[in-house]
Design goal:
InterPro entries: WH-like_DNA-bd_sf (IPR036388), WH_DNA-bd_sf (IPR036390). This is DUF2250 domain-containing protein. It comes from Halobacterium bonnevillei. This protein is mainly α and 84 residues long. The chain is built from 4 helices and 2 strands. The longest helix has 13 residues.
């Protein structure tokens, strides 16, 4: 289990560490399925995944937008803080 993110940069939202943890523990997944499994609305999770991808923490793995955690995302989880 990864250390919880203690210090959040201004761009981040409380859902972001939950999304990263989900992807760290599973195969790449569609935002709608991530949303269902973590109990959030699909459009919100899709927006957050896009932001996390822009920050290099997750990446789409297909043209259908299936995300997985990146090495940078893994390091952020291990450090307990999202990058600025």
């Amino acid at each position: 289990m990864h250390e919880a993110a203690s210090s959040q940069p201004a761009w981040s939202r409380p859902a972001d560490p939950t999304i990263l943890e989900f992807l760290a523990e599973r195969d790449p997944e569609y935002p709608a399925i991530i949303a269902n499994r973590i109990g959030m609305h699909a459009p919100y999770v899709e927006t957050r995944c896009e932001e996390l991808a822009d920050r290099g923490l997750v990446e789409p793995v297909s043209g259908e937008v299936v995300y997985r955690l990146t090495d940078r995302g893994e390091r952020a989880l291990d450090a307990g803080a999202l990058p600025e």
